[in-house]
């Protein structure tokens, strides 16, 4: 069993899907400095039929539009392509899962669980659990029973939720997902994507360890940066080794004082790699490049929405270009 929904059949012909995605790429925001230079960046965005506007001043519409787009692409794929791209979609759906859990546990105002799950790629049994079950440990046990990347998760996840809370449980799940995926046989383009995604998570964790003098919680296996180098840098409390390590990865000096500030730098680096892979003839790289660019576009637009009172220089540093 797996957490993601499956669709039977062969999907649409690959050349047709690639042509549709090529057309959609033309609507992506290409010039973020120009957007930032506008008096009202969100109002002056170039129009797109595939991007929903923020609903009621919140970004629910932005993320719902992204989910709808991803669901459309996933439905066009045959089972073979869906399997290839599962390492991209699954970590995102784990975030969706915990977003719904937080909405239910806190009774937060905003989007309803049903609206968040409307375009979600989570399988029907998990969606039913999230909408109908009221006991959070029972939900986690049921979710774990559907995980093929963590055998026995259904037995241990309720305890992790109780001991480490929602944040700790989410991190354990995402780390387990990425670690398992990185050790699997993958399409070369997806394998490179996963190793760089593991690097991103590990670099951010390293910065948090040094910034907050945290005990090492364990780095994810399977990244391009050797775990031994990460552990050694984590023990160097003055941060010198970490700065050199991150400098070699990014090609520029980075500020360890803000772990969040490393995310746009690492994401932009990953985007450049994916754009190069998008030129490969089998089409997998092109699809992956589009999915990533669509994700980072939504992140940037959400940042513009929430950072309306921030100065443009701060926004520019936070955005993925």
Q: What is the radius of gyration?
A: 20 Å
Secondary-structure-derived class: mainly alpha
The SSE string, one letter per element, is HHHHHHHHHHHHHH
Average residue-wise pLDDT: 90
Portion in beta strands: under 5%
Helical fraction: 55-70%
Shape: globular
Poorly predicted tracts of residues: none
Quaternary organisation of the protein chains: single chain
From the N-terminal CA to the C-terminal CA, the straight-line distance is: 37 Å
What key phrases describe this protein's structure?
321 residues; mainly alpha; 14 helices; 65% helix; globular
In short:
This protein has 321 residues and is mainly α. It has helices at residues 14-25, 32-37, 60-76, 79-106, 113-116, 124-132, 136-145, 153-182, 188-212, 227-235, 240-250, 259-277, 284-306, 312-318. It has 14 helices and no strands.
Describe the protein's architecture and organization.
This protein has 14 helices and no strands. The radius of gyration is 20 Å and the shape is globular. The chain has helices at residues 14-25, 32-37, 60-76, 79-106, 113-116, 124-132, 136-145, 153-182, 188-212, 227-235, 240-250, 259-277, 284-306, 312-318. With 321 residues, the protein is mostly helical.
Write the layout of secondary structure elements.
Layout: H1 14-25, H2 32-37, H3 60-76, H4 79-106, H5 113-116, H6 124-132, H7 136-145, H8 153-182, H9 188-212, H10 227-235, H11 240-250, H12 259-277, H13 284-306, H14 312-318
Helix pairs in contact: 3-13, 4-8, 7-8, 8-9, 9-10, 9-12, 10-11, 12-13
